[in-house]
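Journal club side-thread
Mid-discussion, someone asked how the predicted structure for our own chain would compare to the paper's figures. Pasting it here so we can look after the session.
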Amino acid sequence: MSEIVFMPPKPGYLERPEWFSSPKGMKMAVINFEKSWGQLVISSNVARVSIIPAGTKRNPRGWYVDWGFLYDEISRIHFTSEELAAAFGLTDEKGKTGLALLSFYGGDSAEQGKYMRWGICLNIPSLPVDYDHDISISIEIDEQMRTCVRQLLGK
């Protein structure tokens, strides 16, 4: 009789509450990275996130994070380089405007209206549209994503 072996969960995954992010975030993966253009695309079969520079190499103005579900509107949120690094867990920065979110919901880092991260689980909201539940996209951050963001930021 064969023995059943259970694999341990990924570090940081079960440390967050079940409601925090969608399990579909585990299916997100890097599909395109162009360091010279400053572009990173993370995607699944139903959603897509693009990170592109806001400004020029001579005059950088942070990053645009565009995301959407297939055949749906695209949401665009502006991130500073520090916010992008914290969102992907490259720094321990808690966030300047997210402390109320963290004290109420928990988590590791947040910026109001931009992102909330708990371990390796990242949520990026849409712009508020006054529905009862505004949508957000969930990403389970892996090492390839962190490496790409680190390279985009020149770290």
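Post-session note: The mean pLDDT is 82.
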